[in-house]
Amino acid sequence: MRRTLALCALVVLALPAQAFGHASIQASSPSSRERLDRPPREVTVRFDQSVKVFPYGIRVYDVKGHQRAYGWRTLDQGRVISARVRPLEKGPYTVRWQALSADGHAVSGVFTFGVGVAAPPPSDAFGAVGPTTTEDVVRWLLFVSLALLIGGLGFRLLVLDGPLPSRLEGRFTVVTLIGAVGALEVGVAAFLLRAQGALQLPFALFLYGDLSPFAYDTRFGMAFVAMTLLLALVIALVFLAWLTERRVLLWPAFGLSIALASGLSLSGHSAVDRGASTWSQLADWAHLVAACLWAGGLAMLLVVFLSAPELRRRSFIGFARLAPVLIAVLIAAGTYLTVLRLTSLDDLWTTGYGQVLLVKLALVVAALAWGGVHHFVVEPRLDRPGLLARLPRSLAGEAAVGMAVLLLAAVLVNAAPPVAPADATETAARVQAAP
């Protein structure tokens, strides 16, 4: 059976991907996120094949949404589309382009440049839509997937290290691979949603949009590329560990899983907002890893209780001793980030960000109390008849709290922290002074 699965995996990997025939962008002038000392007189986009330019096929917007391009045409036998640009003042600009490919598909894209100032990332281009409720749900699913992956591997190596019954080993592998594959697929969805919010295209046109500026010119995109590659390697290691029965391969998979979680910290608020530093990124990473180990470990503990009654006592004691440490890290890192992100104490109840954070903190404290009961009250009484049989209900309740914490974390990741009064005044002054 294992050899058959391995052969199928090799066949799938060997099959060539279908090539797309639509035109692809090769270069642009100005280039994506280029900072210019002088305003350009025209904007050009070069393709790898001939295209037809649409009326208003290149639009150049300033920060107020005024369209500054005119005179659209094609050059170099249709491989280049261009537009002249009215005189530009100092500031950031957004370019949105669209052309008809030779295969009949409309190709589109967006990029930014700055005249005398740094260009914003394409995700912050004029007309881009910020994080939506759909993105919150997708980010939550990403956190849940990472919890199953990191928590599953951590539970297997730190709590139940050693040989396991084949049925439990198989279920552990399935749960861990569900988390890894889920994180890979949901990560792709999160990237596409972020790009779609900036491109502002209907789905049929978005399929042929140029996503390269989002992949290579934004923190989120670069983190997505790195996380995707690492997740593919983790999936291979977990699968090979099961296929060859070499448990040692799970250690590098665990290390890579923890490392790839840093991509979310390096591309989130802890990396760019007020007070961002190496310490804030490290705290954010520790916060996420501890949450994943705790919530995913609870899921694995339920798998043990349902699959291997003979290991219930050992697994419960091992996790009951690990969980308080994880929640302590969760609270310590969360407290540091809270102090860093809030401008004053009353932000907790006067701002939307603070109110969500307050609910999250209450759930974390409840989880800590729940874990404390398991550690100090339940563990010494495990020998009582029927107690182990009733524990799954309590563990399911604690796991539900963990999933709720991850949901609120997903909402906070996509929400901007409160702005200090001085920062708000400075931002308003810059907007009023903008051309």
Give a description of the structure.
Helix content is 60%, strand content 14%. Residues 4-20 and 422-435 have low confidence and may be disordered. The longest helix has 34 residues, at 166-199. It is α+β, with helices and mostly antiparallel strands and 435 residues long. It has 15 helices and eight strands. It is elongated, with a radius of gyration of 26 Å. α2 runs antiparallel to α7, α3 crosses α10 and α13 (352-378) packs antiparallel against α14. It has helices at 2-14, 133-159, 166-199, 203-206, 212-216, 219-244, 250-260, 262-266, 269-272, 278-307, 312-341, 347-350, 352-378, 387-413, 421-433; strands at 25-29, 34-36, 42-47, 51-61, 69-75, 80-85, 91-101, 106-115. It folds into two domains: 25-122, Sandwich (Immunoglobulin-like); 133-416. The chain has a four-stranded antiparallel β-sheet, with no helix packed on it. Strands 2-8-7-4 form a four-stranded mixed β-sheet, with no helix packed on it.
